[in-house]
Write a structure and sequence with these properties.
By secondary structure, the chain is mainly alpha-helical. It contains five helices and no strands. Helix 1 packs antiparallel against helix 2.
Length: 90
């Protein structure tokens, strides 16, 4: 229902802008588009602030990741040992 209402209002607005003439209609259309873009930027900034408030600190996330990694994978030479074992056919 909201979509149909938006379509109808947009049609009416388009007709009014067309009737106003190119100068006045162009200025009004530019104002509508610019205002919409500024509103979108404002809403995206508000969403970013809310998400940043609820997201954990990066240090906390790294600490949890380190806890979940098995001990044999924490060794810096683990990948080299894996490749050596793969070459031997193990």
């Amino acid at each position: 229902m909201y979509l149909i209402l938006s379509i109808l209002l947009s049609m009416i607005l388009g007709y009014l802008l067309f009737v106003m003439g190119p100068i006045v209609g162009g200025i009004a259309a530019f104002g509508i588009i610019a205002g919409s873009l500024f509103r979108v930027i404002y809403l995206l900034n508000a969403i970013r602030k809310r998400l940043a408030f609820h997201s954990p600190e990066s240090k906390e996330v790294q600490a949890q990741v380190i806890k979940t990694v098995p001990e044999h994978l924490k060794n810096p030479n683990a990948y080299k040992k894996y490749l050596e074992g793969k070459e031997r056919g193990f």
